[in-house]
Amino acid sequence: MQGKPSILIAVVVIIAVVILAKDFIIKIVAEQSVRAVTGLPLRIDNLRMGLTTSLIDIKGLRLYNPAGFEDKVMIKIPEIYVDYKLMSIFKGVIEVSDLRLHLEEFMVVKNKKGEVNIEQLKALQQQKAEKTGAPQEKAKQDIRINKLALKIDKIIYKDYSKEGEPSVKEFKIGIDQTYEGIDNLNALVSLIVVRSLAQTTIANLTNVDISGLSNAVSGTLKGATETTKKVIGETTDTTKKIIGETTENVKDLLKNPFGK
User: Which of 57, 90, 134, 176 maximizes the CB count within 10 A of its CB?
Assistant: First the structure.
C-alpha cells in the first residue's frame, strides 16, 4: 500500500518538471532546428509556450554569422509570434496558422577575404549546387506557414575587403507585408533574403546572385503584390466615393445656402 503513494508522488514530480522545463526544451529544439536549416548558430533570449493554447512567444532572437566575419550577429529579431495547429504535429507536418516576424536589423558583411556572410546560408548554397549540378541535401518539407506577417526595418552592409575602416551603408526599407502558403523553412529564409536585398543595391555590391531564390518564392511574392494592389484599389475606390459625395453636398449647399 505504501508503494502506490510513492509512485503517485513520482508521477506528479515528473509532470511538474516537464511543465517547468517545457519552454527550455522547446527553446533548445528551436535553436537546433534553425541551425539545421540555415547552417548558422542561433540564440533565443526567451521562449514561452502556453499549456492550454497553441501560442508561442519568442523574444530576443539572434542569428549569428559563421566564423571568419568581423561582426558577430547577422539578423536581430526582437519578437516572433507563432500560432500553430496542435493536431498537425501528429500528422508529421507542423501547420502554422499565423506567424508574425519582426526583423529589426539584417547585417550583410563582406569580410577581408571578400567572402559574403549570406552566401553561407544553406538556401544560397543549395542554389549554387543546383546550377553546378553538385549533389545536394534535400530540404525537409515538415512545416507549412499559412500566413506570414513580415516586417523588416533596415539592412546594413559592411565591407571589410578594402584597407582602412569598413565601408558602411544603411538601408531603411520599412517592409510590412503579408504572405501566404510557405511550405518549408528554406522557402521562408529565401523569402526574407529576397525581400531584403530587392530593396537595396547590396546584391550588386556583393555580386550575390539571388535569382534562384527569387524563382523559388515567386508565387509567394506575387500573392503579396496582388494583396497590396487590392488594398490600394479598395482605398482608392473609397476615397473617390467620399470625394464624390462631398462634391454633391457642396453643390446642394450652393443651390440652397439657407436650406429648403
Answer: 57
